Amino acid sequence: MGIHGEGCNCGQSQVEKNSCTVEKARVFGMASTETTFPKTIKVPVTLAETAVVVCVEADVHLEKPALEIIRVLKSVILEQCELVPTFSPLSANLFVTGFIRKNIEYTTIDQVTGTAVCGDVRHTTALIPFDFCTELTFPAAGPTLQLAPDFESHGEYLNKSGHAAKINVGLFGNRKVYNERPYCELLFTEFTELDIGLENKRCKDTTKTFSTVREKIVLRLGIKVLQDQQVPIPTPPPTHPPKPTFPPPCKPICPPKKKW
Predict the structure, then answer these.
(1) Strand (E) or helix (H) holding 193
(2) How far apart are CA 11 and CA 18, in angstroms?
(3) Which residues, in sequence order, are CB contacts of 215 under 8 Å at separation 6+?
(4) For residue range 171-203, what is the model confidence (pLDDT) as tens digits?
(5) Biggest CA pair distance of the chain
């Protein structure tokens, strides 16, 4: 015999009768409102500006064997930049994911003579991924990451005997705060690199080609981390009307003293 009694099917009939429905929903009276008029303005606030050095190595395969590389163009595109709080209120970890867009222009060989090498100019655009995580520490007196926590509560009632809680009655409360999500902006990028041609093949005694370029890249990029925050509007000092100016009072002219 179970705690609900023998042959209890208290859950089956209820599910079949009221399956996935909402009934008897009512709103009691007028909803109360609480309105405030804060003297603030919502603006992007700079939390930090950081410069990070990333080392990347990759092999780029060319469409045709190359004689030489004549020009390389590079740029950085950020795919993800997320600020995650840590266990300290004044620090957070910055997770960044992106790729280097690298355009390689190179010459090919179609014909080799004793005095010249003829060919086309081709290009290969490679997307080289990178990712890193760095820690940011905010100053105590400066702007910091503003994140308000949520709140949840739970309470129970005693049953009539006072020996246990009612399992069919419960008190629940929660408060959700919708915070502004931090975001990033790219400030600058700097590159130094070494390109090494691999899979060399000799066409003539003094002419070699390569089909793969090994990229060794040192990337330095500057990132600005921002968050939209409520900033108080500065109150201008009170202005007093200018005091009226009057001509200085005339000095009284004393009569000359009489001689006795």
Answers:
(1) strand 183-198
(2) 11
(3) 56, 57, 58, 59, 60, 102, 126, 128, 193, 194, 195
(4) 888 988 888 999 999 999 999 999 888 867 766
(5) 139
CA atoms within 13 A on the CB side of 225: 29
Q: What is the distance between the alpha carbons of residues 193 and 217, in angstroms, rounded to a whole number?
A: 4
Q: Whole-angstrom Cα distance, residue 67 to residue 200?
A: 10
Helices (H), the chain: 12-17
Q: Tokens 């600058």 identify what position?
A: 188
pLDDT attached to residue 242: 74
Residue 45 CB coordination number (10 Å): 19
The residue among 168, 41, 144, 150 whose CA lies nearest residue 88 is 144
Rounded to two decimals, what is the model's pTM? 0.71
